[in-house]
Amino acid sequence: MSRRRADSHGSLGPDDEVVPYSDDETDDELEPSIDEQPEGLPSVSQLSDLNWQVKANDRSFCKQPQFQKKFFLCFKRCKYAGNAIRTYKYNVITFLPLNLYEQFKRAANLYFLALLILQIIPEITTLPWYTTLVPLVLVLGITAIKDLVDDLVSVTCLFQECRWMQIQVGDVVRLKKNDFIPADILLLSSSNPNSLCYVETAELDGETNLKFKMGLKVTHERLQEESQLQSFDALIECEEPNNRLDKFTGNMLWGRERFPLDLDNMLLRGCKVRNTDECHGLVIYAGSDTKIMRNGGKTRFKRTKIDYLMNYMVYTIFVLLILVCAGLAIGHTYWYQDVGSRAWYLSIIFKHSSPLSVFIHYTYAGWLICVALMLFDFLLLSVEVIRLGQSKFINWDLQMYYSEKDTPAKARTTTLNEQLGQIEYIFSDKTGTLTQNIMAFKKCSIAGRVLNHLFNLSVDFSSNIFAEKKFQFYDHHLISCIQSKKDKDVLEFFKLLSLCHTVMVEQREDDLVYQAASPDEGALVTAARNFGFVFLSRTQDTITISEMGTETTYEMLALLDFNSDRKRMSIILRFPDGKIRLYCKGADTVIYERLSPNSKYKDVTQEALDVFANETLRTLCLCYKDISRADFDAWSRKYKEASIAMRNREEALDEVYEQIEKDLLLIGATAIEDKLQDGVPETIAKLAKADIKIWVLTGDKKETAENIGFSCQLLTDDMQIYYGEDVNSQSKIKERFFPEGGKNALIITGGWLRRRLRLRRLGKKPSPTSPQDSQPMNDHEKELRQQDFVDMACECGAVICCRVTPKQKANVVNLVKKYKKAITLSIGDGANDVNMIKTADIGVGISGQEGMQAVMSSDYAFAQFRYLQRLLLVHGRWSYIRMCKFLRYFFYKNFSFTLVHFWYSFFSGYSSQVAYEDWFITLYNVCYSSLPVLLVGLLDQDVNDKLSLMFPKLYLPGQQGTLFNYKNFFISLFHGIFTSLIIFFIPYGAFLQTMGQDGEAPSDYQSFAVVTASSLIITVNLQISLDTSYWTFVNCFAVLGSMAIYFGIMFDIHSAGIHVIFPSAFKFTGVASNALRQPYLWLTIILTVGISLLPVICIQFLCKTIWPSVGDELQRNRRKFERQAEEPPKEKPTFQRGARSRRSAYAFSHSRGYADLISTGRSIRQKPRARRDAPESIKEAPQAENI
């Protein structure tokens, strides 16, 4: 029966283009946004409590008593954090207690500790105390050292760290070009006009385009000299530290005047100063109070699914042991009353003991110690060794080494390797993770002609002294048209690209440095430069370009900037001959609505746009319009009135823009490639075949994210795409949201998530009175909405969440973990991905163009997204198979070993007398049976790496957990019971009423112990041989060597010489040589081993013959598939004719440009002197500095 569906009122109308505030866990710091705020309520800034106070150049101000807060009991400390940041879990004081606490969360360690306490008591112990203490100390010590090394790797290691740690709130700091910003700083002044400062925010939002910040006018004018900065004593009142990257509210009190502060005045930690020689600022938030750290989330202790499963299995074994030991103790009590009490040697021991005392002290506790120690001896230590080795294999994998940046893969933890083989959901960032953050001008359509037909030889731009060397174009006809100057449409096309933009240029020595608000704009202006239309300079009201070597200056009459609603930008210019022309570029969906009925090339350009979009290129339409002097004068008056409007200024300006941006004439369209990283589509396709679902979580706009989804083949043409507004009223049909599973894709925004789910605790604020309040009515309603969202999204083959904040990324990951109980992996390359990386079960950092924040918080790191398929499908799958095989075999061999005591107890009065020699018990898991299984855990592979990548379906058993679960555990248990029965009773039958060749009867206890021990060692070592899929010389040596070590050590410790030296420790003098010289005992051993292994051989033969798995089929035809894997793959065309049209993605910045800076002249320096010669090179700053 379908449960009640959560009401979705209030989810309507999300703002797709606005990144919502980052929701904290409680979300209490969120105020209603402007569009949601009811009339009559105060504004957001009025509601904010400005409780954070900072005094410039006064560190002692922050240490006053009113700024102290409690942190533990009655102890207080300053609420202002220092600037030292730690990404590690331990420090000198907390390492030992925290690490021991984490280790004793493992039930096996806790169980060992309890047994050690019992074993210290002499009256009840059956084995020496050191047999428990030594393994326990080794396990705890080696694990602690490994955890410490892992943690030291996580310490942030920036070259500025030693200086950053000294910065405190209230300090005035100086930053220079290309410096990372060490704290959240209020910009006071800079070397640029009007104290502009350009920053790259890739660490925060993944965007490599430059953004500008500006100091207050008063600080710009009065804080330029060092002496002025030293005497600066303003008081800053602002909001408490929070994680909202898009909001800051505060005031500056200075000289009895109050100045408002907002986000445009703030330089946030993690950003990078660009194209600004020098700037000065006041530290407002430091260390853990900074916005980037507030979005980073908490460092979590991660454990694998197998770890949790092993805990439950330990509990199960413990319960079984208690029951078995209790049964044996009860049997011994009754046996002692009936038989043992009449034996003189027992009556002396138990003379003063009651039956209850015999039961508890002498039998039950003795059995508990005896049996338990044999089950878990060295289990955890072996697991840690295997994990360490698997981590080293990842580090040493040359196929995951990125030579261009000399970056190898790095396993930054050694405890999660097998979890890599169980991933069900991948959450990936887009910018810098799937893409390279590089835009390239690929194609264009001019006057209905598509240009850049592919030729083998690229166009030679050497004749153009301004050409960018890395720029490549393959249509020689286009360059010929430009050089001939006969095609006016082509010339007008590139003239538009060189004039219609908000790029700013600055001459530095012999270089022109471009400052682009968008990498798209940078790519377009760079393309125009290569084709001979070079943007040279601009002032407040002019723009100068070089047209095929001729320098021309145009008067700029108006600049109509881009925003997310307009999706276009325009510029109105007066030509040198007095003609007035409007140039416009924008998304085709808005340009076509504004074209003149007389405009040509609409149909053919639309066809070209369809082709470009199907090739996943980002498109823009270019158009123009000539304006008469009278029309412009009339429009200009309206424009000036709208510019000074006191209310609804933006709406008034948009309305005026609409009046002039109509009746446009189409020139053509551009196609820009947002370059993917190498191998991204192939990686996503392989992971999808492995039934791994990939979600893209990005702060980018919806159109761009969707376009990249098609580029990387996450989205395909046969998918039905649903948007947030489409599924607001979607209801389940027969327990499903969509009629067809797997062929659906969901694209939602952060605004939709915020309205739909309200990821916060509702008890903090008054409950809403109606569903129209855009939030759930109560906690139950919230839970229903969250679960419905997860169920709906998980029915889709692909999910893209765009315009989401770092906190929302983490919330989405957490929801899937919570409601699907799935193993998740997050991958990203920027600081905005850190929270998501920490929240997922596995975090992967890409050491890309956005710094090292993601890498420092990750569990695994490498340089390219394509390495993810090898990490999961090869290393992850192998690690999971190896660990499962190791655990199954370890339980089997220890059950076989331990349960022999159980059968022996039936013939020893149910006492806790052990069936083996003490030294055999001590060395069984250390020397005799450890090495072969360790090598299987380190080296075994069912198929090689090429076949693992060739057949992703091999990954499915890990997701389903079929190789190690309770079923496998009980199979190992029953297999161990069967083997122990054979190992005990066949020698028992052979020893019963026998006589040796020399007339002696070797049927004593010690000879029996030697035969059973020898049978056990040979059986378990041959059993691991049957389970080994990948044989090497090392494996063969380990199996034979383990048996040789057993016999060698046994003959040594049974020798008379060692007995003379240590008579109390070595009591089996001459037993081995006496027993093993009897041929019929060797036949007994052979018979025991054969009967133990024969059923296993038969079952394995039947399974591989009648019910073969995918891996079995591959092994059977291994050579055939290996030949196929060596063949070069056939290239698939990226463009498929007949595919449906996609023209939703356009190439443009989704943030505001520099139009207001240009039109007001705030960013313009003095006009540079006329140049006699052209500069040697021109570089576009955002791209050139990031490549």
Automatic annotation (TrEMBL):
<feature type="binding site">
    <location>
        <position position="430"/>
    </location>
    <ligand>
        <name>ATP</name>
    </ligand>
</feature>
<dbReference type="GO" id="GO:0005886">
    <property type="term" value="C:plasma membrane"/>
</dbReference>
<feature type="region of interest" description="Disordered">
    <location>
        <begin position="1120"/>
        <end position="1187"/>
    </location>
</feature>
<feature type="binding site">
    <location>
        <position position="833"/>
    </location>
    <ligand>
        <name>Mg(2+)</name>
    </ligand>
</feature>
<feature type="transmembrane region" description="Helical">
    <location>
        <begin position="1082"/>
        <end position="1103"/>
    </location>
</feature>
<dbReference type="InterPro" id="IPR032631">
    <property type="entry name" value="P-type_ATPase_N"/>
</dbReference>
<dbReference type="GO" id="GO:0000287">
    <property type="term" value="F:magnesium ion binding"/>
</dbReference>
<feature type="binding site">
    <location>
        <position position="809"/>
    </location>
    <ligand>
        <name>ATP</name>
    </ligand>
</feature>
<dbReference type="InterPro" id="IPR018303">
    <property type="entry name" value="ATPase_P-typ_P_site"/>
</dbReference>
<dbReference type="InterPro" id="IPR023299">
    <property type="entry name" value="ATPase_P-typ_cyto_dom_N"/>
</dbReference>
<keyword id="KW-0812">Transmembrane</keyword>
<feature type="binding site">
    <location>
        <position position="833"/>
    </location>
    <ligand>
        <name>ATP</name>
    </ligand>
</feature>
<feature type="binding site">
    <location>
        <position position="829"/>
    </location>
    <ligand>
        <name>Mg(2+)</name>
    </ligand>
</feature>
<keyword id="KW-0067">ATP-binding</keyword>
<dbReference type="Pfam" id="PF13246">
    <property type="entry name" value="Cation_ATPase"/>
</dbReference>
<feature type="domain" description="P-type ATPase N-terminal">
    <location>
        <begin position="69"/>
        <end position="133"/>
    </location>
</feature>
<feature type="transmembrane region" description="Helical">
    <location>
        <begin position="1036"/>
        <end position="1062"/>
    </location>
</feature>
<feature type="transmembrane region" description="Helical">
    <location>
        <begin position="1005"/>
        <end position="1024"/>
    </location>
</feature>
<feature type="active site" description="4-aspartylphosphate intermediate">
    <location>
        <position position="429"/>
    </location>
</feature>
<dbReference type="GO" id="GO:0140326">
    <property type="term" value="F:ATPase-coupled intramembrane lipid transporter activity"/>
</dbReference>
<feature type="binding site">
    <location>
        <position position="429"/>
    </location>
    <ligand>
        <name>ATP</name>
    </ligand>
</feature>
<feature type="binding site">
    <location>
        <position position="699"/>
    </location>
    <ligand>
        <name>ATP</name>
    </ligand>
</feature>
<feature type="binding site">
    <location>
        <position position="521"/>
    </location>
    <ligand>
        <name>ATP</name>
    </ligand>
</feature>
<dbReference type="GO" id="GO:0005524">
    <property type="term" value="F:ATP binding"/>
</dbReference>
<feature type="domain" description="P-type ATPase C-terminal">
    <location>
        <begin position="855"/>
        <end position="1109"/>
    </location>
</feature>
<dbReference type="GO" id="GO:0045332">
    <property type="term" value="P:phospholipid translocation"/>
</dbReference>
<dbReference type="InterPro" id="IPR023298">
    <property type="entry name" value="ATPase_P-typ_TM_dom_sf"/>
</dbReference>
<feature type="transmembrane region" description="Helical">
    <location>
        <begin position="312"/>
        <end position="335"/>
    </location>
</feature>
<feature type="transmembrane region" description="Helical">
    <location>
        <begin position="919"/>
        <end position="939"/>
    </location>
</feature>
<feature type="binding site">
    <location>
        <position position="431"/>
    </location>
    <ligand>
        <name>ATP</name>
    </ligand>
</feature>
<feature type="compositionally biased region" description="Acidic residues">
    <location>
        <begin position="14"/>
        <end position="38"/>
    </location>
</feature>
<keyword id="KW-1133">Transmembrane helix</keyword>
<dbReference type="GO" id="GO:0005802">
    <property type="term" value="C:trans-Golgi network"/>
</dbReference>
<comment type="similarity">
    <text>Belongs to the cation transport ATPase (P-type) (TC 3.A.3) family. Type IV subfamily.</text>
</comment>
<feature type="binding site">
    <location>
        <position position="832"/>
    </location>
    <ligand>
        <name>ATP</name>
    </ligand>
</feature>
<feature type="region of interest" description="Disordered">
    <location>
        <begin position="762"/>
        <end position="782"/>
    </location>
</feature>
<feature type="binding site">
    <location>
        <position position="431"/>
    </location>
    <ligand>
        <name>Mg(2+)</name>
    </ligand>
</feature>
<feature type="binding site">
    <location>
        <position position="698"/>
    </location>
    <ligand>
        <name>ATP</name>
    </ligand>
</feature>
<dbReference type="InterPro" id="IPR008250">
    <property type="entry name" value="ATPase_P-typ_transduc_dom_A_sf"/>
</dbReference>
<dbReference type="InterPro" id="IPR001757">
    <property type="entry name" value="P_typ_ATPase"/>
</dbReference>
<protein>
    <recommendedName>
        <fullName>Phospholipid-transporting ATPase</fullName>
        <ecNumber>7.6.2.1</ecNumber>
    </recommendedName>
</protein>
<feature type="transmembrane region" description="Helical">
    <location>
        <begin position="364"/>
        <end position="383"/>
    </location>
</feature>
